[in-house]
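Justification of computing resources. Each target in the renewal requires a structure prediction run like the one illustrated here; the chain below, 380 residues long, is used simply to show the kind of job we budget for.
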Amino acid sequence: MAKKDYYAIIGVAKDASDEDIKKAYRKLAMKYHPDRNPDNKEAEEKFKEAAEAYQVLSDPQKRSRYDQMGHAGVNDQGGFSSNMNMDDIFTNFSDIFENIFSGGGGGGRHRQKRGTSTEPQPQRGHDLRQEITISFKDSFTGIDSNLSYVRFIPCETCHAKGTTAGTTVKNCSTCHGTGQVQFQQGFFAFAQPCNACSGHGFTIPSPCTTCKGQTRIQKRDKFSVSIPKGIQDGMELRIGDKGDAGIFGGGTGDLYVRVTVQEDPKFKRKDDDLLCSMMLTYPQLVLGCQVEIESIDGSKETLKVPSGTPADHKIVLTGKGFTSIRGRGKGSLVVKLKCYIPKKISSEATKALREYSDIVGTSVVDSEDGIIGFFKKFLG
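Resulting structure tokens:
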């Protein structure tokens, strides 16, 4: 039986463009696809027939011979035989079936593209995280802290290539460089990483003896981290290129250092202000005084306490607090004054206090700060 004209099978004119031929074949492949025509021998034959015609017309040399000599020009030149395998169709025309169904599902049992040249793609290394604990004073003054941790660095033996000198990677013969083996079951497409190359699309026949083909090795790194003045508890510092080295020459990740600031028994922090309290005697608060205090960094500051200063009064020294890490300037040193009340005093002091009470009296001027009590007697 004489074979049908390939142009007629595809449904295009003899002067049709390559793109028109491809579109026409895609339409036929969708129409007669075995998954859309289960157990339909007639559709299967038309599917094979269209594939045979497309294989010839899509190849410029075969199409030229066919135009000159008809079927005789392409016999035994790559045309399909009558016992062709369906998998051969899906494999050879994977570009046609790549997106034949919605969602990118291929129409073949295996969708890998043959002959794909897969070079190792550089991949950036992972970011790493470390923690450092510093004192409250260190957060005020800043400090250089030593850090030691394990990370990946580029292999110097193979210069991050993963191969021994004079050798190269090769395309995986199983997935042909795609990194995946894909299957079609009914209208559902499935894909899984190629086991032969672990999904890379290539293999390393002669891996570097130092890194075993991984292009990088682990090493303990030590360096000094500069903790800036004003760092707050829980803040993170990003240190560029101190994370893991990339694969096959990819960029190096960053290192994030989380800073924990210990509490201090005497000083506290609020925003950029440094807070503390100072005990003064009752006479110092009443008569006023000048005192010297020592800040968290050991520097000396002089405070002038006006006469008649109440307990819990705050004296603010501008620019003596924390350095602002997010802007310019500094916070304040805020000193809260407290009155020292001794639990035991001498008889002379007791006598003096009673005499003082007789002089100043025991009544208190009414104010909005609290309620007024009525004096009855001393208990001591």
